[in-house]
Every structure is written in structure tokens, then in C-alpha cells.
Specification:
globular; 6 strands; 14% strand; 6-stranded parallel sheet; Undecaprenyl pyrophosphate synthetase; alpha/beta
């Protein structure tokens, strides 16, 4: 029996976040340039998005480009931005067909204008869709996000709109770029790396973590099903005892 047949459809994680790692290493193993890995990775994004929507996942957040990635060689960054634009244009009809709504989080002001404009256009076109919400973390860093939210809260206090004693978890969450998105239930990271890499540090506080040696271009539907089954075998206590949640 495959993993798909083992999935309990009444226990699907509401929000799945993925660190898509290993595109460059996959290409290197094939004797190809890194961009071939990124292009192959886009195919995996397409497949996993459709599978997540089919299973009933409500939110799928993909870590596409970190603020640290701006430090990569300029030619690779430029090629990635071009690939993003091509992918957005190509995939928008598919998002509409599958009732998927696109969102983006991150320091989007740093994006090249053409990339930024294409993203906004796709976000607007899909804004009325009511199915899976596909969140792309682009030019994103959790530390950047936390610093930004801290500055905004400090400004609100300075302007007398808030008291220091009013600041709590709900207030902090409301100032994050994910303010209208529930925290992830499951984080998947591919390529065998066992770290969070500055991704959703606040939001992942109670997420279940799933690491796989599989490189992102090789991450199949069956691998995704495996991650869901593994998640469903875990007991999520949120600080309580097993007896309290039963």
C-alpha cells in the first residue's frame, strides 16, 4: 500500500511550509549548470501545489528566495528572477483553473520591477479564488520580518496608538507579513539539511518538522504523501500532556 492510501483525509495539515533545497546539487550531480536544477525545481513546485490542493491543504508556503540569496553571483540571481517571471506568466492560467490564490511575503521592494509587477498582476488575477492559498516567500528573511514588525510596533507606541503593556503574542503576529495566514502545522525541508535557515522563525514555534535527504527536483508526490503520513502519526500537544488532548 502506498503512502497516499494511508493518509487520513480528516487530519490533513491546514498549512504546509516547504524549504525547497537541493536544486543546485541536483544539477551538479547531472553534470549540468545550476539553472537546470532551478528549472527542474519549478516542475516540482507545479506538481506539489496540485497535490496539496487535491488533498485539501488550505495554505502552502514555499521558500523560493531568501534575502541571503541576493549575495549569490549576479548572473545566477538575474537568471532566477527571469525564471520567476516566466513561471508566473506560464502558471497563472493553471492557478485560475485550479482555484488557487497566490500571495507573496518578503521584502518585495528589492525585486526587479518586472518581477514585482508580474507577481502583483498574478496576485490580483487570483485574488478571487477560494481554494488553496499558495504563499511564495520571496526576498524573505525571518529576522528581517521580526525587525520590521518590531519597528512598526515601536512606532505605534511612539505615536500613542498602543501601550507597551498591550504588546502580546497576538499583537506581534498581527504585525508580521503572515498576519492573515495561520501558522504552519508542518514544515518540510528537502536535501538532507537539518536547519530552519531563517524561515518563519516566529510562526514555526509549534510546527512539526520533517526532513528528507531527497533533493527538491526529485521530490515526488509520493514523497509528499510520506511527509503527510509521518505528520499524522505524531501527537501535537502544544505544551499540554497527552491526557489533556485526548
Amino acid at each position: 500500500m502506498g503512502y497516499k492510501e494511508q493518509i487520513q483525509l480528516d487530519r490533513i495539515p491546514r498549512h504546509v511550509a516547504i524549504i525547497m533545497d537541493g536544486n543546485g546539487r541536483w544539477a551538479k550531480r547531472q553534470g549540468l549548470a545550476r539553472m537546470f536544477g532551478h528549472r527542474r525545481g519549478v516542475e516540482t513546485v507545479h506538481n506539489i501545489t496540485e497535490v496539496a490542493a487535491e488533498l485539501g491543504v488550505s495554505y502552502l508556503t514555499l521558500y523560493a528566495f531568501s534575502t541571503e540569496n541576493w549575495n549569490r553571483p549576479k548572473e545566477e540571481v538575474d537568471a532566477l528572477m527571469a525564471l520567476l517571471v516566466d513561471t508566473i506568466v506560464k502558471e497563472t492560467p493553471t492557478l485560475m483553473k485550479n482555484n488557487i490564490r497566490l500571495q507573496a511575503i518578503g521584502d518585495l521592494a528589492r525585486l526587479p520591477k518586472v518581477t514585482y509587477d508580474k507577481f502583483l498582476s498574478c496576485i490580483e488575477q487570483t485574488s478571487g479564488n477560494t481554494g488553496l492559498v499558495l504563499v511564495i516567500a520571496l526576498s524573505y528573511s525571518a529576522r528581517w520580518e521580526i525587525i520590521r514588525s518590531t519597528q512598526m510596533i515601536a512606532e505605534a507606541v511612539k505615536e500613542g496608538k498602543m501601550l507597551v503593556e498591550d504588546i502580546n503574542e497576538e499583537v506581534v503576529s498581527s504585525y508580521l507579513t503572515t498576519s492573515d495566514i495561520p501558522d504552519p502545522d508542518l514544515l518540510i525541508r528537502t536535501s538532507g539539511e537539518l536547519r530552519i535557515s531563517n524561515f518563519l522563525l516566529w510562526q514555526l514555534a509549534y510546527a512539526e518538522l520533517y526532513f528528507t535527504d531527497c533533493l527538491w527536483p526529485e521530490f515526488t508526490n509520493e514523497e509528499f504523501y510520506h511527509a503527510i503520513v509521518d505528520y499524522q502519526h505524531r501527537e501535537r500537544r502544544f505544551g499540554k500532556t497527552s491526557e489533556q488532548i485526548r
